[in-house]
Each structure stands twice: as structure tokens, then as C-alpha cells.
Amino acid sequence: MKRLLPSKSRLAFLSLALSATMLGGAIQPASAEERALVIARDMDVNSLDPARAWCDTCQIYNTSVYEQLVTLDKDNKVQPLIASSWEINPEQTELTFKLDPAAKFSDGSPVEAKDVKWSFERLKNIKGNGAFIADPISSIDIPDAQTVVVKLSAPNSEFLNQASAGFLGIINSDVAAANGALSDATAVDKDTSENWFLSNSAGSGPFVLESYEPNAELRLKRNENYWRKAPVIPQVVFRQVKDAVAQAQMLQSGAADIAMQIDAETAKTLEGSNVVVDKVPSYNFVYIALSPGAKANTVKLTPEVREAISIAIDRTSLIDFTVGGAGRAIATPIPLGFPGGDNHEIPAYDPDRAKELLAAAGVGDGFTLKSIYPDMNVYGVDFSLMMQKIQQDLAKVGITVELSPVPFANWREAANGDHIPLTAVFFAPDFFGTSQYVDVFGLSEGSVWAKRAGGETDPSIISTETGKLREQALAAPAEEAEKLWFEAGELMAKARIIIPMVSPDLILAHSPDVKGVRYSACCNLPLAEITN
């Protein structure tokens, strides 16, 4: 998922943000007791089609307007949603879902097995960013209108969790197909429904799409035909506000009920006001990465050099400097709280030992590292400030870091092209499960970071073990899987290619009248639980 929060020109943006709020028009409450919920956030929307959407706001939208077979509670336990029950075979290759016969779409038509099959197959064939979740599906059988049998190409004990992800929202297939949506193999080229989805929805969720104005406003209204308990809030309005200061000012003035991207520094300005500021641990993290295969390397980034770089960074000081201490150190690229993510040893800050390692590697006289990174503020972490802190730390052990902040598109081109000796990036989960982290960061041949780290020119970084551990974990019972994920985490940490820096706390800021605001691994912000 992409989580962006630019930090520049905050005060200049404030007047524009407040003007945009007024230009958005008055929101008429349904009654004296009911009023709209206004959310200020950077709406990084790329699409409102569940099969194409790929952003934080999209995650909220997909799980509020559409519904999945299952969902997650506050403890990340799977709960029924459209599916009232399910069975999984011992091999973890076949899941049989029984649909709730009461489930219905917003137009009143029943949610049936054919809609589930169509939605899953469409996600796979559209080939968008979320298609990876559907790719392991080998076939889907629908013996009757309330039964869906999903067959997987390999054991996958995480698929039930994955079924809670917004990408697997169930679409009213009849309505969508009538407006150009396709689910077969031609969908990637011939599906013409994306524009239709920008002004229409076809889900069974507690809300329906009312209107969307790109880069300005997204409005949802209560689904009056909702088949479960209807939400209290009649309308939800997302207002486009990039700047954290502007979001905070909107909260204080009453122009917004919730601000979703308040950073730790800005949160301090809300102290003493009636705004509620909750800091909760998140599953997001920011990391640096080293590319031994980068063309710009001036020295060989051996395991010893990579270890020296890791322990030359004062993580505690960095967390204080970047997020005011509102975050947790993280040792391996698996979120704290995910299977296999806890209890790894945080590398101790030890510049003297770092110097010894560099000397032993023959680079004790120092060298230069080129660093290209996205010019962003993500999860409250200003990447330029963080990299300046890392630059200072590494200078103490003789490593000169040349900083080059660039737009994200330019960063991606560099990372995937000649690669980048030292960079900084971010990651957030797409579902509650550890396989996604091993897929991205496990350095298996052909994986994302095996390529970005230059594995084709330095094959020593390629891991043959993490992929095996992934397969074993996906076929194992939960307790055994936890141990296998932990082992994979240890291998990823020891490689010192991906070096996590901080898991920033999530700051949930809202008016005192708003209740039920919480962070969710599947849904980001469960709107139906909120009251005002």
C-alpha cells in the first residue's frame, strides 16, 4: 500500500485546505441526531474499482462499500461476514464457504456464489496490484447459490486471512457486467468499467458511493438496504488535505471529525484542546535498504560492511528525532504483532565495533555511499530528516553518504534500474499474514528485493532458504508456522539488505464526540463501527 503525507509548505497549505472545505458545500444532517462524519486525509486514490484500487483510502472504501467473505476483529481474529461458516481441508488447499442467505447487495438483490466466483476471477484477470492474492486460486466451484469452494494451487494457511482483504470485496456481478466489467481472461485488456466505478458502486457494504471528485472529496452515504445492523452515521465525507497542520486545524475548528495523518510533532499542538489524540502501535514500518549489486557502489557491500552500517545507526536517537519517540524499533521486516515478527534482537548501536568491521573488510579509511530515496513524509517520518540523521551517524565511522531526495516515480526507476547503494522505503500490510513480507523481503531469486538489491550481479545475496520456510509455514499448523516465520525473519534480518528503522505509532486524532475509531489490519478504519 502507498501511504503518503508530504510535509512541506504546511502553513501555506492551511488556507487552501480550509477554503477547499468551504467550497465543498454544506453537509446537511439527516436529523438533529444524525450528521455526516468528515475525515481529513490525503486521498491517494488511484481507482474505486475493488480489483484495481491500491491505496490507504481505497482500503477503507473497499471494506465499507463492499464486503468480503470474512473480516478481522480488533484482535485480528477471523469473523464471519458474507460467509457465515467455512471449512478448510487438512492440506490447506481447499476452502468451502457457506454464504449467509440474508446477505444482499445495496440494490436488494441477493449475494450469491456466482458473485463470489466472478469477483475473485476478475481480481485475478484484471492483473492489478492486488491480483497476487487471487493468483494462487486454481479453480472455484459453486455447487449451489450459497456454497463456494475455492481450490488453491499450493497449501496456504493464510488464505482465510487474505479473504478479509479489500481486494477480495464481492461485487454485484450482474450490475457490474452490465456496465462493462469482465471477469474472464480478456478482462486485463477489454474491461471498460473503471470509469463507471468512479461514480457508481455495486457492493453489499454498510455504505454506498455518493460522489467522488478526484483530489477534492469522496462522499459515501449509508446503505439504507444494508442486511446487517445499519451504521449510525448517515454520510461519510473524505476531504483532500495533505498537510498535517491543516488537518489539525480542521479538527480544532470543527471542520473535520477525524484526521488520519497527524504526525507526532503536529499532535503536540493539539495538547490542551478538546481533540482526542490516541497513539496506537501500527503494523507499518520504515526501512533502509542496501544494494550490493548497485552500479554506483564504490566498495563491495559485503556482509561485514552491511553489518557495520547497521550497528553504526543509533536507532533510539533516530526514533526520537523522526517521530518524537512515538514508534518502536523493529529488527526484521515482519511487523511486530504478526506471526514470526516478535522477539527478534534489535541491533545494538556500536560505532566502535562498526569501525572494526570496516577495517577488517579493508575499507577502514572510509568510502562514499550514494543514497537516492523518495522525497516523502510517510507515517509521520520525514525521509529527508531521517536520512540526514543516518548520514551523521555513518559519518562517525568514516562513511560519507551523498543524499539525493527524488519524486517517488524517479526513485522507483532508479531502484529497479541500476539500483541504489543506500535507500529508504516504507511498507504496510495488505492483509494479516507474514507470507507477504517473505515474498517481498526474503531475497528469493526473482523476488522484489532480490532484484532491487542487484542479485543478478551479486548472487551471494540470493536466499534459497526463505522460500522453503514460506512453503513449510503455509502448510503447517499455526503454532509450527509461527516458528517457521520467526526463522525466516531471522534470516532476513541477518542478511542486512533490508534494515528496518522504526515502526511509527499510528496517531488517531478525532473530535470528542466521535467514538469507535480504531486501526485495523484488514480495513484500516472500520467506518461502520464509528458513531458521532
Describe this structure in words.
- Keywords: Signal.
- It holds the Pfam family SBP_bac_5.
- InterPro entries: Peptide/Ni-bd, SBP_5, SBP_5_dom.
- The chain has 532 residues and is of the alpha+beta class.
- It is 31% helix and 20% strand.
- The chain has helices at residues 10-23, 56-65, 113-126, 131-134, 159-162, 173-177, 187-190, 194-197, 244-253, 264-268, 303-311, 315-323, 351-360, 383-395, 408-416, 435-441, 448-452, 466-474, 478-495, and strands at 37-41, 70-72, 78-80, 83-88, 94-99, 137-144, 147-152, 207-213, 217-222, 235-240, 258-259, 276-280, 285-290, 327-328, 367-374, 377-378, 381-382, 399-406, 422-427, 498-504, 506-510.
- A hairpin with a 5-residue loop joins strand 4 (83-88) and strand 5.
- Helix 1 crosses helix 9 (244-253), helix 11 (303-311) packs antiparallel against helix 13 and helix 18 runs antiparallel to helix 19.
- The model is unreliable at 1-32 (pLDDT under 50).
What is the topological layout?
Blueprint (H helix, E strand, L loop, with lengths): L9 H14 L13 E5 L14 H10 L4 E3 L5 E3 L2 E6 L5 E6 L13 H14 L4 H4 L2 E8 L2 E6 L6 H4 L10 H5 L9 H4 L3 H4 L9 E7 L3 E6 L12 E6 L3 H10 L4 E2 L4 H5 L7 E5 L4 E6 L12 H9 L3 H9 L3 E2 L22 H10 L6 E8 L2 E2 L2 E2 H13 L3 E8 L1 H9 L5 E6 L7 H7 L6 H5 L13 H9 L3 H18 L2 E7 L1 E5 L22
Parallel strand pairs: 1-10, 1-11, 15-18
Antiparallel strand pairs: 2-3, 4-5, 5-7, 6-7, 8-9, 9-10, 11-21, 12-21, 13-19, 13-20, 14-20, 16-17
